[in-house]
Design a protein that fits this description.
This protein is mostly helical. It has one domain. The model has no long low-confidence stretch (mean pLDDT about 85).
Length: about 40
């Protein structure tokens, strides 16, 4: 029983970490696009 609870918690942490990294990548990408637009003028 305890192993199942620990496994469920571990899965939740891993999924949250993946979403955080994915969001960070999108933020960096949008920042790069903004720099490209401003330097192209």
């Amino acid at each position: 029983m305890i192993k199942k609870v620990v496994l469920a918690g571990l899965c939740a942490v891993i999924l949250a970490g993946c979403n955080t990294v994915k969001g960070l990548g999108k933020d960096i990408e949008s920042g790069g696009k903004a720099i490209e637009r401003s330097s192209g003028k």
